[in-house]
Amino acid sequence: MTGLAVSAVTAALLSAAPAHAVVGEPAKDDTFTFTAKLDIGGERSCSAALVGEQWLVTAASCFADDPAKSLAVQAGTPKMRTIATIGRTDLTRGGGSVAEVVELVPRTDRDVVMARLATPVDGIAPVGLSANAVLPGEGLWVAGYGRTHDEWVPDRLHHARFTVDTVKSTSIDLSGKTPNAAVCQGDTGGPAFREIGGRYELAGINSMSGQGGCFGTDETVTSRTAANTRVDDITGWIRSVAYRDVLKQADWKNVAHLASGRFTNASGAAAKRRMDLFVIWKDGSASIFPGTDSTDPKTPFSGEHKVAKAGSDWKYARAIAAGNFAGSGTDGLFVRWVDAEVTEYGHLDLKGAHDERTLKKKLKLDPKNFWNNARLITIGNYSGNGLRDDVLVLWENGSTSLYTDIHSKELNGYSQLSPAADSWKNAIQISAGEFNGKPTSDLLIQWKDGETSVFPGVDAKGYHGRTKIRDAGTAWKNAHILTTGAFTHNDDRVNDILISWNNGNLGLYPDVDANGDHGGIELLK
Description:
single chain; mainly beta; 6-stranded antiparallel beta barrel; 6-stranded antiparallel barrel; 3 helices
């Protein structure tokens, strides 16, 4: 290798035309949008990859004082003001996000550093992380914003295909699949990634290259080989950094309602990530915490996205539950409002709730609207049709009812599960789950004294037994709000319980089954 691929450019050149990438093909609009361009103090230009809503991974050499002598980087605020442009394939156009890098978290064993953005990036999917080892002979895409063969500061992201020649402990050697493929100055920190089923997985970070064929390189230099820093073996570290502060940034004492579902990613076999969490706060604002593809149960969410500001209509919600009503796309919400109106939203995503249908008009138009007495609601697969589209209601008098297939039947698929009962008035929370492997969903109930019970395989005929998973007087008596979801696996089995405690902490109990919970994880303490 002739040297590091960091591009040294003047501030004037950066302001006139920001830098671009790999000698190869210009990227089409809105492709490889997880690739970022870094302007480091107007003196250096590098590339990076978005790995979380507020985090990039790039090369430490981009920030080292003298990368030819040492890759050491001081943790904390970058010495030179650094601006990241993410998701803008053509740098002369708008779109994407621009944010300042406010923190660096380096490793000491290789040319890698994590860079935290001042604000989260919205609407741009991070590149996937996978623990699958890089293999010799494997084909990878390489992208970046560095020089090309005829441009010093190009205006578009470029990419090329490379082959993995050798795999070392912390690096991989690459060679281009086409004669003109090369990694040039300005590409340092850019991603090398594989494509699997339309999904991209990060394998390495551009570090050094021969730079043959790059603009400004002596014509006698012909080497186009490149050395990339491996990241396939440090995905756990990347995730631990990227998701470390997601939950700490919110005030969980102010939670009003929780609902879990697949609001930002597909269900079933197509699911790539854990379930998301929808939160309505006491001030009427609302957030979605997207699930991660991490295998670490301590990092179930990848960021917080505000979908409604304080004072929004969500302040009028009195009970919510998430379900899959249409059978495709993202999950939606079932809401009982303060005026007893009942609404189905077919889908919920980072832009808010969509496809609204009023299932029951508000109270002032219908004085006999008994939905004003709907105290607790949950949604599960109680009809056995494979969809979470059946609403179970616990009324003020302690009776329970089931409304099946609400998307097609609205509120006409009614059956009473149990008559009024004083004992059920002691229920303070209910949630649907799949703890026992039955064809239909179970019902989880938490009682006032902290005892928590599971009613397995509930259906239109009623309840079929009861299992206690928590005794009265245990720590669960301090649960403020709980919800069930698939927070530790990317399948759709809803058998994890997330609890927001009265003191503002968060706990997660994975893989609850007929034998109860098997210990919790403190997500926030």
